[in-house]
Amino acid sequence: MLAALRTSLKQVIVWIFLGVLALGFGLSFGLPSDAITCGVEPIAKTYGENLLDEDYQYQYQAISLVLPLPKDAKFQETMGLKQEVLDAIVERRVLAKVGERMGLAAIKDDAEEATSMGHVIVLGNTYDWLGDGAFNYTMFKQRHLPRFLVTEPKYLEYQRQELLARTVRDLIAGSVTVSEAELRAEYEGRQNQLSLRYARYETARFADLVDPSEGELTKYVEGHKDELVKQFEAQGTRFTKLPKQLRLRFIQVHKPEPPAEDADKPTKAAYEAALKAARLKIDTTAARLAEGEEFRALARMISDDAMTASRGGDYGWASVEGTGTGLDPAIDRAAAALKAGAVSPVVESEEAFYLVRVDGVREGDVPQEEALRELAEDGVMRERGKELARLAAAEALQALKDGKKLTELFKSPDALGLDAPGIDALPVDGEVGSVKESAKGPELRVTGLFARERPIPGLGMNPELTKAAWAADPKAEFIDGVFETDDGLVIAAVEKKETATEEGLAAARAELYRELVARKAGRVTARFAFNTCLADKARGDIVPHDAKIKRLMTYETKEAVDEDGNQVLKPYVMCDRVGNRGGMLRASAMMSGAR
Description:
disordered N terminus; five-stranded antiparallel β-sheet; single chain; alpha+beta
């Protein structure tokens, strides 16, 4: 036993001796700075210093102090909240190192002085956390410092680096100049502005007036087969595993609001007369349907349901089971009792009278042939709707050429605003009658001022309209042309035209120069910081620890990959966002209304 004890003691002494030799060798020839981390795994190493979790937590808390961070987890992942935070740390360290290379210095005393003045630097901007109060060390320790979850020495070191990075930014900004040509171009771009009056003829609104025939659908499917098949495959959930659905149409006639129980006799008499008129209206409509008139045409003329009247009463495919269609329960009950192609008798509820028709019934998976015809229906309506919109806009333009005013043309309820019916009142596909007299046509709108190269407010980028507007006489009643937009056609006139002047340039010069210098300096600094980060990473001064970063950049929402595991969001690469100074976070704050 004594011999075994002696053997063990010898082994312990040998291992201690070897450890001392290894330590001596390391001290003589140098150990990696992260060789002894006491179990803490760094996120990266920058310029020989580990970037740790506490550095990340500080930066996150500092940013949240000055910017409202998005609360939605999916949005956080989509915009890259963690990426913004991490690269903000790297940017600070990169610019601080540039300052050191330039021979600049910022010491702990500088950070203490800035802190005592109530300043805190975050993302390169200086904020005043004291307000109108005087610095109090106890308040700093108890109220300000705990927000950042770090010790006082760490906080001061971060602020020292921020001071040095800010100095580098200031030096770059001080070297930036703006030429006279740049200044003049900016001024003219801002001052040369137009505002338009316009009326939009929306394709979708006119498409509602189209009822494709079976022949048209067949022809469209034959001519667009490949395109429709792709749509079918992309919209699989629209046509697969469906609950029982009905294709509904209905005509609605509102009942008048009943009077109070203690209302006088004339009020009650008026109510009874109005109720009788509503009942007569729906009964007459039912009789006309029985005589063979088209349901869709009557719905457009008679129905007072704003959502479906222009579409010939079409509500689309809906399920009447479970929670129902969302319509009046009386409609659901009537539809559930109908077979495809049948029309209900008059249905009465507390609020209205209805006539209901079921155009079709389906359940489960829709056969591809049927699905293609449904998609073709959308396509035919869209194409025909655009043709009708173009015709209506052309009629309006001709009316202007004939001497009408824009205010005359668009104050009337129908599409053209003329005394005679316009395109909206023409029969569609042989239908009898017209759309309701109360149907609203395009409204006259004003864009507000916009520069020549900017999108037109409310209309987007439209080079053809912009070019014509700038060439038009500002005093003219209209611009000669019908202009296509993403969702229809437009006719327009110049509302207001502003042009640049030498006097205006002289007045705006000083402030505009300062603004352009700041903007240009921001771009130059961003590019400089980004390129420096890439160069320093390439030569090993910045070393990401990929495994740790991968874990850090994994969000619980898993938006980065699709159901098949394919990457849909760009993976984090260190330096990618260096120079942006939290650009996505600032944009998020602006989107949420923060300033």
